[in-house]
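seq as requested:
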Amino acid sequence: MTTPATRSTSGDQPARGARLPRRARRAQLLESALEVFVAQGYHSAAMDDIAESAGVSKPVLYQHFPGKLDLYLALLDQAVEKVIAGTREALESTEDNKQRVAATMTAFYTYVASEQGEFRLVFESDLTNEPAVRERIDRVTLECAELIAHVIHDDTGLPDEASRLLAVALVGMGQVSARFWLESRLQGNDTMEQADAASLVAGLAWRGIRGYPRTDEPG
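struct tokens:
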């Protein structure tokens, strides 16, 4: 599995084998697990690999996470919250709906372009047949769409079902186009800058969604 870039380790981080408070150790293990899962996928990754990457023994790893699935779900929970929070922040950043669309698309592109490659756990998981994983992945689409749907409904007066469907379409447009842009760029087939790509897709989304007039506009 290709990663956007190789993440460098900051010089002010503690050595991986050093004694750490429990919370700090857990965070460090999650960071190491992310590297391994993104590089290898769930099925190919082994707890041995994660322990080695973290510079700890397997017993230490198992003290924090009883099994590989528990570790993966903890990472996924973290990733899901980040996507949803980014969408909420984008929507709350302005009252201008054109700018809201642009900010939301920028949030998706920024998340996908992160050098850690965390988005692969959310949008390209090789464990979607596991119910607990599927539930979390679906939560990203559903909760991001619900946030957007509230704005659409409040501004247009469209029924909840219609607002939700339009919102899901916008979420899909953001995450699918962002992943396509990134993969094309990694393969050397696309030189478009991230900001330009996000702006282009935001323009397309806005041209569609502005066709539904605000409820406070004169008839």
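Residues 160-186 form the longest helix (27 residues).
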